[in-house]
Amino acid sequence: MDPNIKWFFNKKAENITKVLLSKEYDTILIEDLDKAKEFIISKIPPYESLVLDETPFLNSLELSTSITEKRCKILDYKKERQAILADNFITQCDFITENGELIFLNDFASCAATFGPNKVFVIVSAYKIIKTLSHIDKKSTNNFSVVHHGRKFPNKYTVIVVPENI
Fold first, then answer.
1. Cα–Cα distance for residue pair 159/118, rounded to 1 Å
2. Which of 24, 49, 131, 137 could disulfide-pair with 86, CB 3.0 to 4.6 Å?
3. The dihedral of CA 157, 32, 14, 128: what is its sign?
4. What is the pLDDT of residues 102-130, one digit of tens each?
5. Looking at the domain that runs over 3-162, which CATH code has it been given?
């Protein structure tokens, strides 16, 4: 990658991390996806239930192998109704506004991020930052959810910001 582009996305990642911290999300800037994977796995307590969002990106991280080694029960939200009540949920954010609003387009991710598991781990790319919520209309979808801040449910949202394109 061109060093100037890399610098640009690192700066965007640093800036959005500061915004997210001010919105009272538990937020961490992690330089690459391998370290992000290690971080998430270290934060999942053994023997808890977990829902892993089914996106090509999350599937590529192969989290399920490491999670099952911790004897966590992975629930399939397409087959198990209790998935919405899991202890943990790992997902990626479809978009994030410069004001720190997390936007989820996937139906289950929208529901779970708002009403579901006690702990939500969100991976967000600096490449997914949009100016405002009004820009989401141009990116197509009929329904989506927006998490405006982390104040209402302290410690529910852990946002992992990576300067890579996911």
1. 14
2. 49
3. negative
4. 998 877 888 888 888 999 999 999 999 99
5. 3.40.50.10420
